[in-house]
């Protein structure tokens, strides 16, 4: 270790910044962010120095020789100096900083490579939840209460460990401070024997396939999960992001294949959470879009767990982006409807007449095997048979395939997408904007 990392309390104390450069201004800003009383000067004046007694000084005059002279004078006066970008002239160097309120991470390469330090900072930025500072503030808020309620220091430490890594911490990171505070009070008030279970349930959207379009929160919860209950639609690369020792249970329920009944999935979710596990119910796309996430949430609540719901990129958005179809467009469509072609047994068919509107994009989920009915329904409902359509199968994945044509061709197009990869049908003028590989053009389809 070349330098000692230390965090300096500058609140209300005097910091001198010498120079009129951008670097000097940036240091002044940082010092002010830390609460310092900043004096900016183009040069040093010894009487001023004696009067203000700065605790540290930054030097960036823009002139190397001048920097050296100023630094020596300050040092002679007993003020520790940082000369910007000149570690050899500095008593202390500035780290790359990740600033999340109370949580600050400082990265140093001992002055060897500021670029590397910035790169490491980026990695840390990505790894840290954006609300980690709020978690620290939450800790500060309950610190005294916990101290009074839990006398033994080791018990206190265990409690805090559970808070930080458990459901309460998860709630704070998800912005649910009120829920977290209530749980904290319950935990402090309940005698150990009757304490609420420590497990948790999260309904997490895994997106359309490509692991890169997971949300940061989804990636974090995946990494923390003890148990994963995942759908068939979830890409294996995403499951790989979980801990190696996490229990993975496929509860896939794709059409035409044996699947676990919803009631069983619900029961499994609660059973694992009751056993104290952090359960992630990982669902394709978004949990609240055609995914029965609402039912799972209600079931969990009825059993004493209030799941965090992490949104995912729904198939329509993923397919739109990766197939080059803007779902709305000033010239073509000012509204979009996500609709499923499949209903609960016994429900009416979709109201195609209501959906058949010009200037409107339809993203039809689960419509591939009933493409003919979709076409007939929309045409009968009044939509022109010449309306552009696109079929996007395995959207965002390496094996994505796209084909385009008109509504009249829809059944033919659908037949070109065999296999059991999920497919989305896009209907509306924007479908004509899809990027399709040569050889899959519409003329060929009819
Ligand atoms: N909750 C999911 C939808 C689940 S329903 C979401 O928000 O996306 C399953 C249907 O979603 C599939 O039949 C298909 O129509 C669509 N789908 C899911 N992933 C897809 C993908 N990668 N490409 C195309 N369609 C997809």
Protein model, in words:
The chain is an alpha/beta fold and 446 residues long. It has helices at 22-33, 46-52, 64-76, 114-127, 132-149, 153-165, 167-173, 177-189, 216-224, 236-239, 262-274, 293-302, 315-323, 352-355, 371-380, 410-415, 442-445, and strands at 14-18, 37-41, 56-59, 81-83, 96-100, 103-107, 200-205, 227-230, 247-250, 278-283, 308-310, 335-340, 360-365, 388-393, 401-406, 423-427. The strands form four sheets. The chain has a five-stranded parallel β-sheet with strand order 9-8-10-7-11, with helices on both faces. Residues 442-446 have low confidence and may be disordered. The structure holds S-adenosyl-L-homocysteine (SAH). Residues 208-209, 233, 283-286, 289-291, 314-315, 318-319, 365-366, 392-397, 422-424 line the site of S-adenosyl-L-homocysteine.
In short:
By secondary structure, the chain is an alpha/beta fold. It is built from 17 helices and 16 strands.
List the helices and strands and how they pair.
Layout lengths: L13 E5 L3 H12 L3 E5 L4 H7 L3 E4 L4 H13 L4 E3 L12 E5 L2 E5 L6 H14 L4 H18 L3 H13 L1 H7 L3 H13 L10 E6 L10 H9 L2 E4 L5 H4 L7 E4 L11 H13 L3 E6 L9 H10 L5 E3 L4 H9 L11 E6 L11 H4 L4 E6 L5 H10 L7 E6 L7 E6 L3 H6 L7 E5 L14 H4 L1
Helix pairs in contact: 5-6, 5-8, 6-7, 7-8
The structure holds S-adenosyl-L-homocysteine.
The site of S-adenosyl-L-homocysteine has 25 residues, from helix 13, strand 14 and strand 16.
């Amino acid at each position: 270790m070349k330098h000692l990392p230390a965090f300096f309390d500058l609140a209300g104390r005097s910091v001198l910044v010498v120079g009129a450069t951008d670097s000097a201004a940036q240091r002044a800003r940082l010092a002010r962010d830390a609460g310092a009383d900043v004096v900016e000067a183009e040069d040093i004046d010894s009487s001023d120095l004696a009067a203000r007694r700065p605790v540290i000084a930054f030097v960036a005059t823009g002139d190397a020789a001048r920097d050296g002279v100023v630094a020596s004078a300050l040092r002679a006066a007993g003020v520790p100096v940082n000369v910007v970008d000149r570690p050899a002239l500095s008593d202390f160097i500035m780290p790359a900083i990740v600033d999340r309120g109370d949580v600050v991470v400082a990265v140093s390469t001992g002055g060897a490579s500021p670029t590397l330090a910035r790169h490491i900072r980026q990695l840390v930025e990505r790894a840290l939840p954006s609300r980690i500072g709020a978690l620290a503030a939450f800790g500060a808020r309950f610190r005294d209460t916990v101290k009074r309620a839990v006398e033994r220091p080791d018990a206190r430490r265990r409690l805090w460990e559970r808070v930080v890594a458990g459901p309460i911490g998860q709630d704070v990171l998800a912005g649910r401070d009120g829920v977290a505070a209530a749980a904290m009070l319950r935990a402090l008030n309940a005698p150990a024997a009757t304490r609420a279970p420590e497990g948790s349930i999260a309904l997490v959207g895994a997106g359309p396939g490509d692991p890169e379009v997971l949300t940061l929160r989804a990636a974090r919860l995946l990494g923390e999960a003890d148990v994963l209950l995942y759908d068939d639609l979830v890409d294996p690369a995403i499951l790989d992001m979980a801990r190696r020792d996490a229990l993975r249970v496929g509860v896939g329920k794709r059409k035409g294949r044996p699947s676990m009944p919803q009631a069983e999935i619900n029961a499994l979710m609660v059973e694992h959470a009751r056993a104290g596990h952090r359960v992630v119910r990982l669902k394709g796309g978004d949990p609240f879009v055609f995914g029965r996430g609402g039912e799972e949430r209600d079931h969990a609540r009825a059993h004493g767990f209030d799941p965090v719901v992490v949104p995912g990129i729904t198939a329509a958005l993923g397919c739109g982006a990766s197939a080059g179809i803007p779902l709305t467009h000033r010239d073509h469509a000012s509204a979009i409807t996500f609709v499923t072609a499949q209903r609960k047994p016994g429900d009416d068919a979709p109201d195609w007449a209501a959906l058949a509107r010009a200037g409107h994009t339809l993203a039809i989920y689960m419509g591939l095997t009933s493409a003919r009915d979709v076409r007939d329904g929309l045409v009968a409902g009044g939509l022109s048979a010449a309306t552009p359509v696109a079929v996007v199968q395995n959207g965002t994945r390496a094996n994505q395939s796209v084909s385009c044509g008109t509504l009249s061709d829809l059944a033919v197009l659908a037949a070109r997408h065999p296999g059991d990869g999920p497919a989305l049908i896009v209907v509306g003028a924007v479908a004509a904007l899809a990027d399709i590989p040569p050889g899959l053009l519409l003329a060929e389809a009819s």
